[in-house]
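Budget justification aside, the reviewers requested a transparent look at the raw inputs and outputs of the sequence design task funded under Objective 1. We therefore reproduce one unedited record. The lines immediately below are the structure tokens for a 182-residue chain.
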């Protein structure tokens, strides 16, 4: 027993000094400068690409109604998976197919990377406080369910991070950009 106590104390000290990022919205890990870049989203406000707009599904759906064709790309900054493309690829698709694109970050993790990625459109981030859940998996699913017109707590299979709309009405989700929009 005496041999276990020092080992447990060492484990506790190590674990208390380590930051565990990526489980929550990671707002607390932003620098004071980065926190100044975050502001609430309002569709009446002129949006700047140097800012990050905190939003929920209700507010974003209201903005989507202003565009005949739009899509929301819900993504994690720094993603390296095969479905993760540079933001300019999504903007190019939007421009070629007459869509308005909305880039929505799942959290503040690696916000510095997201802000320096080339793009012409502003960034949004999910307002985890609105959903009352600080765990990424929970509030991201709530957000996407509401964007699809479903109950927040709907449980289904993964449908992708690209959500397409016509006049603010959800049409379909994709994991990859579609080859055709018909």
């Amino acid at each position: 027993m005496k041999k276990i106590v020092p080992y447990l104390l060492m484990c506790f000290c190590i674990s208390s000094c380590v930051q565990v990022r990526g489980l929550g919205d990671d707002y607390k890990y932003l620098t004071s400068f980065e926190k100044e870049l975050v502001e609430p989203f309002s569709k009446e406000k002129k949006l700047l690409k140097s800012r990050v707009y905190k939003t929920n599904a209700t507010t974003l759906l209201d903005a989507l109604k202003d565009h005949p064709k739009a899509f929301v790309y819900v993504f994690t900054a720094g993603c390296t998976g095969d479905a993760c493309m540079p933001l300019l690829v999504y903007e190019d698709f939007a421009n070629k197919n007459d869509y308005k694109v909305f880039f929505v970050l799942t959290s503040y993790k690696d916000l510095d990377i997201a802000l320096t990625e080339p793009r012409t459109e502003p960034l949004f981030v999910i307002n985890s406080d609105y959903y009352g859940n600080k765990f990424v998996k929970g509030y991201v699913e709530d957000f996407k369910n509401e964007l699809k017109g479903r109950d927040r707590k709907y449980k289904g299979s993964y449908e992708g991070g690209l959500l397409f709309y016509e006049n603010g009405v959800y049409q379909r989700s994709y994991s990859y950009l579609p080859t055709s929009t018909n």
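The radius of gyration is 19 Å. The longest strand covers residues 69-75. Computational costs for records of this kind are itemized in the attached budget.
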